[in-house]
Each structure stands twice: as structure tokens, then as C-alpha cells.
Amino acid sequence: MGRVTARRRARHLTAERSVTRPETLAVEEPLEIRVNGTPITVTMRTPGSDVELAQGFLLTEGVIAGRDDIVAVQYCRGATDAGINTYNVLDVTLAPHVPAPDVDVTRNFYTTSSCGVCGKASLDAVLLTSRYCPGDDPFRLAAETLAVMPGRLLDAQKVFASTGGLHGAALFSADGAMLAVREDIGRHNAVDKVIGWALEHHRIPLAGTALLVSGRASFELTQKAVMAGVPLLAAVSAPSSLAVDLASQSGLTLVAFLRGESMNVYTRPDRLVGWAGEPPGPHPLG
Prior knowledge:
By secondary structure, the chain is an alpha/beta fold. It has two domains: 29-107, Roll (Ubiquitin-like (UB roll)); 134-273, Cytidine Deaminase, domain 2 (3-Layer(aba) Sandwich). It is built from nine helices and 14 strands. It has a six-stranded mixed β-sheet, with helices on both faces. It has a four-stranded mixed β-sheet with strand order 4-3-6-5. Strands 1-2 form a two-stranded antiparallel sheet. The longest helix is centred in the last third of the chain and has 14 residues, at 187-200. Mean pLDDT is 87; it is low at 105-118.
């Protein structure tokens, strides 16, 4: 398996001196994901949890619905490296009952997903594709429990502590227990790895859980939460307008700017209990 960190020399400058020293960096390498032998996408990721990444990716893009839709996942030997396994090509074999994705359509969709998509068609596409409905989940979470989750995620990000260059994603239960945490140089990859963990443990849909991300809440990450059946998505940074629109239409609780005892709740605030201003109705913000 590839390394998650690497050492590179850098010249460190201050007002008083200049010194050359080695620095620890997060590794970034391509991972080609194939389905039934056909390449469908290449993502730049930090090596590690690649099987989870591939499975989470396929689930959040609507190709599969559960672990039973996959027969096998294995690394492929490269044709240009004398057959040596470089751990950068992963082939997923689907079960016979699962239709293979349309390569032309999925390649275009995957290419644009990290750049952001917009418009009503994008919202409708997610709502039509998702097999799960977060809006039906009776999940409730104490605001004080949610408030301490970013600190716990940061404590669990071991590679970030040494590099400062990785995003984190974590799943929590209603009582605040951390179920899984993953890191990656791509925020979408970190989420796919966590969802892939859930898939491996037959926990899809992710009812009764909160998904926390270390950065912003983009449309893409909100889409992944909806596709996995997560009822609450929280981010330490800002949401996008389209993320809020999708959360509202799907019944997902979206929390952002989660910093200490302060947060913005954009949709379905009824799921958060405690603290001032608890809403009286079921979901007054949509």
C-alpha cells in the first residue's frame, strides 16, 4: 500500500533567518476506478482505504445501493510497470443483477462533480436517483453533543496533525459515539471513504447518524449524504446555496459554521434539541 506522507525539503524563511529543512507532506496520487474492467473515473486521493473510497463513490453516484451489489474489489497490475501492483488502479466487479453504469454519462458527471453543478436539474437528479429519504428519519441529536464533535474529529486526524494538509470526515451516532473517521487530500474522497466503511459494515442507509466534515458543505458533499441516507450533515465552514437547497428538498438537516457553542442550522432544525431557540414546529426552515 502506498504511503500517506512524504518528506520534501523546503527553505523556511522568517524575518530573522533562513533555514532549509525537511517537511512532512500529505501524499497525493491518482486512483483509477474501474467497473467490470471498464475505467469510469480517476480521482486524486491520499492512499489508504481505497476499497472504501471506491465503494462509497459508487454508492453516492447511484451505481450501487448496498454491499450485496458488489462481488469483488481488487487492485489491477499496471501495463507499464512490468506487472507490478502500484495500488493506483482498482477494479470493482458488480453482482450480475446490477447494471453497469453508462461510461459516457458517468465520466462527464464525475468530471464536473468536483467543480460544482447548479440548477434545478441537478437537485431533481439527486432526488430521483437516491434510494433513501433522509426526511423520513426520526433522528434527534443534542446540540451540546454536536458542538464537541469537531474537536473529536480533529483529535482523530493523525495525518493532518503531521501535515496540515488533509480533510477529515467522521460518522457519529446520536449519543456522540464516533463510528468511523477517514482523512484524504480531497474532501469528497474523505466522505466516500466513510460511506464505504458503512457499506462494508452493512450500515447503509446511514439512518440515525450525523456526518461531520472538516471543511465547507458543498453541493457535492450534501449529495453524498443524501445518497447514503444520512439525516444530518454538519460542517465547520460555510455551506453553498445549492447545498442548502438540496438539504431542504431532501429533508436533510444541514448545520454549518459549527465552531464551539455556535452553529448555523439551515434546514430541519427540529432534529437538534437543547440550547436556546429550539424551534417549536417540525421543520419551519424547510
